[in-house]
Amino acid sequence: MSKNKVYGGFCQALLFSGSVSIPDFILNHYTELGIGHKEMMLIIHMMTESSTNSDRIEEQITKKMGLSLEEYNIMIQNLQTRGLLSVNSRKAKKGTNREYDFSGLIDQLLELWGINEFKQMSSGSERNGKTNTENMPDLSQAKLTSLFEQELGRPLTGLECEHIEKWLMASYSEELIIEALRRGVGAGIRSFRYLDSILREWEKKGIKTRLEVEAEDQNFQSRQNRKNVKPLKGLPKTKSKYDNIYL
């Protein structure tokens, strides 16, 4: 068989062996979500194998990637811990199989896309005639990133750093961001979405400083205390036998 025929046969087999479609946005930004290169390859394999409805996903992926089952399970656990993947069990002919759901990954990509859009809109125009201060948030961001990493006990992901930058660009003060972090850690909730909801709530109330936050807390506590005090209205007045003595 000639070399040209061998080459042509290979190309034909290659084209008809199937293909995998991965959006460019994932490939361009997965490292910003803290996803490693090996993890990304695992995700691609999982998406491919899941679409085939195979009952031997783990076996096929570990074989293709040269992983042990233990390495595979550790990587899966790491993806779950970071909210990128959820695993559900379903009954099969032989025991149970695991189904993989990447809704968490999609949600985080959507969040990242929104942040990027926000940055483009902000950098494309100067608001209310203010001068451009692009370099000013850099110092604040570095300081806040360091503080967040100390409080959370780990390095921040690219998406989390983007969150901090977005807050600064939205004119949230450093002290307000730090106060939101303090309250989140105090409540045992370290989600950046939770911190974002705190900042948005303060923004709705026109709160811009930590002192205003404390004043709002005091006002709230006062309102709660007033609600808890039961009025004595409506109680019947006790009539004395001497009330009419001088009538």
Automatic annotation (TrEMBL):
Residues 146-216 form the DnaB/C C-terminal domain. Residues 216-247 are annotated as: Disordered. SUPFAM superfamilies: DnaD domain-like (SSF158499). Residues 22-113 form the DnaD N-terminal domain. PANTHER family: DNA REPLICATION PROTEIN DNAD, PHAGE REPLICATION PROTEIN-RELATED. Belongs to the DnaB/DnaD family. This is DnaD domain protein. It comes from Dehalobacter restrictus. The lineage of its organism: Bacteria, Bacillati, Bacillota, Clostridia, Eubacteriales.
